[in-house]
Amino acid sequence: MDAVQIRNLTPRLMAYVGRFDDCFSRRDTRDHLSVYVQGQLSDLPQKSVEPMALRAGVRPRTLQEFLARYTWDEDLMRRRVQEIVATEYASPRSIGIIDETSDPKKGTKTPGVQRQHCGAVGKQDNCIVTVHLGYAADDFHTLIDGELFLPESWSNDRERCREAGIPDAMVYRPKSDIALELCDRAVANGVRMEWLTFDEWYGGKPQFLRALDEREQKFVGEVPKNFRAWAEPPQVTNRPHRHRNGRSRRTPRVTADSRPTMTLDEMMRFHAPLRDQAWTRYRIKDGEKGPMVWEIKHVMIYPKNEDGLPTKPYHLIVARNVLNPDEVKYFVSNAPQGASVQTMLLVAFSRWRVERCFEDEKGELGLDHYEGRKYRGLKRHLILTTVSHLFLAKTHQELRGEKPGVEGTDRVPIANRHGDPGDEFVAFGPSWCTVA
């Protein structure tokens, strides 16, 4: 936004940041919130502390200390963001989206920085990685939480961590564990995600899927083609059996004559109900280059649990790009067996919305412009950016004056078994049925 636009929105912005007043005990500290948010919303090319402070007529050192040293409750601020989303954007069509992003950094002092895969440049580079939770409902989407991924090289060097202000309790955790924490935090703050979706890195972790099942969280997640499951439920026995060495085999267990698990690409080649099933075309949504059309096959499968036994049946959706048949995606879902394939497809192909959030937060708000060397400053920067992003999302929706389910929102894919995808669309909004 340019200076004129921000000036016109100042009353709306001041009312919004006032909702976070109780995060601060001192008025002079509280005043820096509007400075930071206005700086992120501005048209400054670089939205690090110094240019934002100079734009507002504030000493850069003061804004640096606001970020890294002054006393205020950033956890309450994050909770307030999630409470606003839970109260004002609750929907039976809500979708939580897990993803991560990386920001290239120079030097060795930024918390969590190391040479690792950097999605921002598509190769190994010196960068930090943060895991995020997005929230989408009808025509609204925003990021509601984010946390630093701490590599093992940092976790094992506690002196380096203390120098960067990283608490001793913060240690290396897989990104999937961080994602679960983000979901748990959001749910504890009243956010209800009817569905959750994620890419194949998370979907390829069976323990992550089991953890979502234990939380009774419905998901549709992409999984790699080497994801293993039974195509048909194997026989399970409770009969005791002893080896010659006297050790008894555990029960219950899968019987020895049961067929083994298969990878998903093996199922496509050898499992007749899937291999011989006709492709059904779905028009997923309209993109910038025209309609996105995918061909779908759908069956039930039975993944293996931590005890080597079959879980409840999962949906398997195989999606092939009509314009590029070599592009095949696999999705699994723990939704009830009668769940609509159309609905699950909509959830599966909703990850573009978190990608758009990253574009907005980096291109418009300076998510990747953090230059500090302390974890507390980075943590606060992530939370402050969600505050700015929520204002951006709220204002965009309110100024458009649109209601959910109108043009611009995601839409339920329409199936067509006889050639080209159908022309008719049904809005994924109030005019459609509730999510199964």
Quick structural summary:
By secondary structure, the protein is of the alpha+beta class. It is 36% helix and 22% strand.
Write up what this structure looks like.
The chain has 436 residues and is α+β, with helices and mostly antiparallel strands. The chain folds into 2 domains: 3-198 and 354-400, no CATH class; 208-350 and 405-427, no CATH class. The protein is built from 16 helices and 17 strands. The chain has helices at 3-8, 10-17, 27-41, 49-56, 60-68, 74-88, 152-155, 158-163, 175-188, 200-203, 206-214, 264-270, 272-275, 341-348, 352-363, 375-400, and strands at residues 95-104, 114-118, 123-137, 140-148, 195-197, 220-223, 228-229, 236-237, 253-254, 262-263, 280-287, 290-301, 314-321, 328-333, 411-412, 414-416, 426-427. The strands form 5 sheets. A 6-stranded antiparallel beta sheet has the order 6-14-13-12-11-16. A hairpin with a 2-residue loop joins strand 11 (280-287) and strand 12 (290-301). The longest helix is centred in the last third of the chain and has 26 residues, at 375-400. The radius of gyration is 24 Å and the shape is globular. It starts with a helix and ends in a 9-residue tail after the last strand. 38% of the residues are buried. Mean pLDDT is 88; it is low at 402-436.
